[in-house]
């Protein structure tokens, strides 16, 4: 499960190391905060703009039994993307934080005077970071908003084919200058599935092969006058898809940009405002293996390797490895899901866990979900307890407590957005005394009649004490526009509540 309603972006579209020390602060042996904390929190939740809302929360020192502060801790709330804490936890638990995914290239047939008399096979290993996110120094480019949501202005900076070019160079170093056969993509790691993304209920193919998040980035700029067609810039430009441009420039847009496919023709329709900033529209490729085949063939051509595409019969069908790319560790791979809240990456992880840790290429999602349930049981929780998608603050805190006792905890925590510093919390109270000390997964979503917000994770105090928390808010709204106007203020309010807890414990 990812969420049961529309995500935040859908609402807008309608419009390791050991854990930190768990010892208590002096005077916190029973986890008491100052008596003014409840009043400070109520002053936040009682603001006029939150009239009619319902709040729930639990703040607890790690290892303690008595909470610092609770409010409706056993009531159920919609957590939205905060459930990604469970999905990431399962990946850490089943695969380990140091697990690396390997993408390899193999030949069948001999190489004779620079000509491969057979095929080249690109074997998918489940690496979700093939593309421009990995910088030269090994760090990740994690711009907010993520390009998969359709609210970004530009593609991720960098070369979307960089790892494929690295593989192609390795093939060339083996003396291959011509391939008499074809380029094939082996996706046997697991059987491809289909998942619905919350934004627009898009049906997404889930494959072991992912390049640039299996997205063709289409940057739309308005024309120079009303009535003029918009201009499109496509990256990576592979000739994989030809997009018919039916976007026009108007004074006040009334139609959202959208792709449609009919008789094999892909059209981008809609209206953009004169003088508006560029907008990136993600085109999700319907055939990840075919996309990778086209991309790798181009990378080979740029290395001077010609692929004829002929059908070749060879006596020697052994797979001989020519090239390999090794991914960053899992602790980095999960950051796109956690820090950026990428729904694209989220739907992949149950498949990867089931196929790799569970050894199940045929029904990987079911096996991945089973392994996640087993983790929840070990945390002392009932995996069937969430009713109609609703979770209690107590449930979240108990799971996060379990994760804080695991040997990989520090890397799990570091994968979360950091308040005031990065990810979906980058803009929340950057000048707060708690900024840089709050590691938490956010969740935002709703329907045309309701908004809900979540923040759950860890507050790290200066002496190493760890506070585990979960806070939720739900509020009826009259329109998506009202939700849009309110959701940012709720996020700030949740940051203010964490800050109040921090100040109550260190002052």
Key terms:
2 domains; disordered N terminus; Beta-lactam/transpept-like; 27% helix; Beta-lactamase; D-alanyl-D-alanine carboxypeptidase/D-alanyl-D-alanine-endopeptidase; 507 residues; alpha+beta; six-stranded antiparallel beta sheet; single chain; D-tyrosyl-trna(Tyr) Deacylase, Chain: A
Structure description:
There is one protein chain. Helix 3 (84-95) crosses helix 9. The protein folds into 2 domains: 6-96 and 330-506, DD-peptidase/beta-lactamase superfamily (Beta-lactamase, 3-Layer(aba) Sandwich); 102-221 and 228-242 and 280-326, D-tyrosyl-trna(Tyr) Deacylase, Chain: A (3-Layer(bba) Sandwich). With 507 residues, it is an alpha+beta fold. Strand 2 (54-61) and strand 3 (69-71) form a beta hairpin. The protein has 12 helices and 22 strands. It has a 6-stranded antiparallel sheet with strand order 1-20-21-22-2-3, with helices on both faces. 27% of the residues lie in helices and 24% in strands. The chain has helices at 8-14, 37-45, 84-95, 162-173, 288-302, 330-333, 335-339, 343-357, 364-378, 393-404, 409-414, 480-506; strands at 6-7, 54-61, 69-71, 102-107, 111-112, 115-116, 120-123, 178-179, 183-186, 193-197, 202-206, 215-221, 231-235, 243-250, 258-262, 265-273, 279-284, 306-307, 320-326, 438-446, 450-460, 466-476. This is D-alanyl-D-alanine carboxypeptidase/D-alanyl-D-alanine-endopeptidase. InterPro entries: Beta-lactam/transpept-like, Peptidase_S13, TAT_signal. One of its GO terms (molecular function) is serine-type carboxypeptidase activity. Residues 1-33 form the signal peptide. Belongs to the peptidase S13 family.
């Amino acid at each position: 499960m990812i969420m049961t309603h529309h995500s935040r972006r859908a609402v807008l579209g309608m419009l390791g190391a050991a854990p930190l020390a768990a010892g208590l602060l002096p005077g916190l042996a029973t986890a008491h905060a100052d008596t003014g904390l409840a009043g400070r929190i109520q002053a936040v939740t009682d603001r006029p703009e939150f009239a009619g809302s319902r709040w729930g929360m639990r703040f607890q020192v790690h290892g303690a039994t008595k909470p610092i502060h609770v409010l409706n801790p056993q009531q159920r709330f919609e957590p939205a993307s905060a459930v990604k804490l469970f999905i990431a936890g399962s990946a850490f638990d089943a695969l380990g934080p140091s697990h690396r995914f390997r993408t390899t290239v193999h030949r069948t047939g001999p190489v004779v005077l620079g000509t491969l008399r057979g095929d080249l096979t690109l074997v998918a290993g489940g690496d979700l970071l093939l593309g421009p996110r990995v910088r030269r120094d090994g760090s990740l480019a994690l711009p907010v908003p993520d390009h998969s949501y359709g609210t970004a202005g530009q593609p991720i900076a960098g070369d979307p084919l960089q790892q494929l070019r690295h593989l192609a160079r390795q093939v060339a170093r083996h003396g291959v200058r011509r391939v008499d056969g074809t380029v094939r993509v082996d996706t046997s790691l697991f059987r491809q599935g289909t998942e619905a993304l919350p934004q627009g209920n898009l049906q997404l193919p889930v494959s072991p092969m992912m390049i640039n998040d299996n997205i063709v980035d289409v940057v739309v700029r308005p024309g120079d006058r009303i009535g003029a067609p918009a201009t499109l810039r496509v990256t990576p430009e592979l000739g994989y898809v030809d997009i018919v441009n039916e976007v026009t420039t108007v004074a006040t847009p009334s139609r959202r940009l959208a792709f449609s496919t009919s008789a094999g023709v892909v059209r981008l329709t809609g209206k953009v405002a004169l003088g508006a900033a560029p907008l990136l529209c993600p085109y999700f490729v319907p055939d990840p293996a075919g996309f990778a085949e086209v991309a790798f063939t181009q990378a080979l051509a740029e290395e001077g390797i010609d692929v004829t595409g002929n059908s070749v019969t060879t006596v020697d069908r052994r797979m001989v490895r020519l090239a390999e790319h090794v991914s960053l560790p899992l602790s980095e791979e999960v950051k796109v899901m956690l820090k950026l809240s990428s729904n694209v990456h989220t739907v992949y992880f149950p498949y990867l866990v089931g196929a790799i840790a569970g050894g199940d290429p045929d029904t990987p999602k079911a096996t991945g979900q089973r392994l996640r349930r087993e983790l929840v049981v070990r945390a002392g929780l009932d995996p069937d307890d969430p009713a109609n998608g609703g979770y209690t603050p107590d449930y979240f805190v108990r799971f996060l407590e379990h994760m804080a006792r695991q040997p990989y905890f520090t890397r799990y925590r570091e994968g979360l957005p950091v308040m005031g510093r990065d990810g979906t919390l980058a803009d929340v109270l950057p000048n707060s005394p708690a900024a840089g000390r709050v590691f938490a997964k956010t969740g935002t979503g709703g329907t045309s009649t309701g908004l809900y917000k979540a923040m759950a994770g860890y507050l790290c105090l200066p002496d190493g004490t760890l506070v585990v928390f979960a806070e939720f808010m739900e509020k009826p709204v009259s329109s998506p526009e009202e939700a849009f106007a309110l959701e940012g203020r709720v996020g700030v309010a949740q940051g203010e509540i964490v800050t109040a807890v921090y100040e109550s414990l260190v002052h």
